[in-house]
Specification:
Blueprint: H1 2-26, E1 31-40, E2 44-45, E3 48-49, E4 56-65, E5 69-77, E6 84-96, E7 99-108, H2 114-117, E8 125-134, E9 137-144, E10 154-165, E11 168-179, E12 194-206, E13 209-218, E14 231-239
Antiparallel strand pairs: 1-4, 1-14, 2-3, 4-5, 5-6, 6-7, 7-8, 8-9, 9-10, 10-11, 11-12, 12-13, 13-14
């Protein structure tokens, strides 16, 4: 039922976004509104499944000003807490010559978290991020003063690359997670307080709908963190 309510809200939001975007273009407004809707076979966050291998429904909306200032919100169904993750953010993006940049702050939100309501650790946490991009490559870093579940500081660095060959998109990602606490009690290749996540995939857009197949996962001990083992993920998305 939670997924049904979320999908209905996201679909309604998609139509609203489309109408708002058209109105903004007609008025030549300095503000633009964009959005997206997606269905994925598994929602992995930095190599760890948030849906226990089950499908997820996701959506996003971003309001941008021509100055580079933007505000965004992204949401997904999940298999824990109240069944919903909702992540608002605010940032500033632009270009210096051929180099793009993006800085901001993001709140990972878990509305009505059953863990917090029961007196357990708070799931919600803030993260500050920055990235630079050039010629299809993006290098970024993110820092959280108190990571998920009040587990202390975290630092995340990542490198993404995307290109198109023969009309087919190719994407690759690698990320390094450095954490205060031993993650899930498991150990990655670099030690007990860090692990690597990865993704390689292909995508194709047809009639405005993007289809992607990717292999994703982490180097964590599969026996201790089954949701972190490598898996194929299929995603269908539509941008507005």
């Amino acid at each position: 039922m939670k997924m049904t309510k979320l999908s209905t809200a996201l679909l309604a939001g998609g139509f609203l976004i489309a109408g708002m975007s058209a109105s903004a273009e007609e008025a030549a407004s300095p503000v633009s509104v964009t959005g997206s809707f997606a269905i994925t076979s598994d929602y992995l966050y930095r190599g760890i499944s948030q849906t226990s291998g089950a499908p997820a429904i996701q959506g996003a909306m971003t309001v941008s000003h021509e100055s580079g200032l933007y505000a965004s919100v992204w949401g997904s169904s999940i298999s824990f807490s109240s069944g919903l993750e909702l992540d608002p953010s605010i940032g500033f993006a632009g270009k210096a010559g051929e180099v793009g940049y993006d800085v901001g702050v993001l709140l990972y939100g878990y509305p009505h978290s059953t863990q917090a309501e029961a007196g357990g650790p708070e799931y919600d946490f803030l993260e500050y991020y920055a990235s630079v991009s050039y010629a299809g490559a993006k290098l970024g870093v993110a820092y959280a003063p108190d990571f998920f579940g009040e587990t202390g500081e975290s630092l995340y660095g990542f490198l993404d690359y995307g290109t198109t060959v023969g009309g087919v998109g190719l994407v690759a990602h690698v990320g390094l997670n450095v954490l205060d606490d031993q993650y899930y009690g498991a150990t990655g290749l670099l030690g007990e307080d860090s692990y690597i996540d990865y993704k390689v995939g292909v995508n194709k857009t047809l009639q405005g709908v993007t289809f992607e197949v990717a292999y994703m996962g982490s180097d964590l001990d599969d026996a201790l963190v089954p949701d972190g083992e490598g898996t194929f993920v299929g995603t269908v998305s539509k941008a507005f």
